[in-house]
Amino acid sequence: MWQECELTWPCTQLPQQCFQPKQHKRLILNSVDGFQDMYACHSTMTPVRRNKISPQKKPRRRYTHAKKRQMVAKMLEASTRGLEAETGIPKSNLSRWMQQKDKLLSFDGSMKRFNLDGAGRPEEIPDITALIAFMLKLREAERAVTCTHIVNYLKRHHRKWLDTYLGEKHRGYQTLLRLLQMFCGRHGFTRQRPTKAKRLQGDLGELRKAFALDFHTAFDTIFNVDETGMSYDMPPKAIWAVGVEVQRSPAAKTFVPYDSCALCARG
User: Fold this and answer.
1) CA 191 to chain centre
2) What gap in Å lies between CA 135 and CA 145, rounded to an integer?
3) Tens digits of per-residue pLDDT, 220-236?
């Protein structure tokens, strides 16, 4: 029942080995001073503490599609157990990649990605496929695509969802605009703003004189009176373009109401 051990100084045993009440150890010490020195030695050791509320976790390892394809090709000739011992990749990951073999081999995106299509947070906007097709159709027709067009589309086709979304938010319209901007950014649309060309004032003056001289020379004998369309609306401040494409004039993409006026030139 009793287990004896003789301790000498300096003590080479751990505190757990020296003091175990459940095993009824009886300590036979060489001297009282040695016991005091040993107690002082163990009392100054910093105990190892674990945070039970939020313990330290190992960072999750992520693997690219290129690595997954490489492992799938190796699993056709080797076992998952052997690959786990060789590469250190868990067996559960290898088994899951083998189940997704068809999707991994048919994936035509970037090999640096970590997840297949469909992973991540689901879209909050309903029927995004039809919305993207609507935006691309406007771009093909040389129309300016703005958030106003998207809001009008949602009013026509998803009015119930739009009313519910605006009613649940504290600042409904601002939140909706932010949601649409993030949606356009995720699906390859870039926000473009018109900028003014910076030229010297002297160059602009010379250009104005040359244009005035050419205009008064070319149209000095025209006596025709016709109705000419005159636009009175301003183009949008920003438009959504597909990817990084050549910027066109926003005014040329905007169909706005126009008025007409009569232009007469006297000889």
Assistant:
1) 16
2) 7
3) 666 666 666 655 566 77
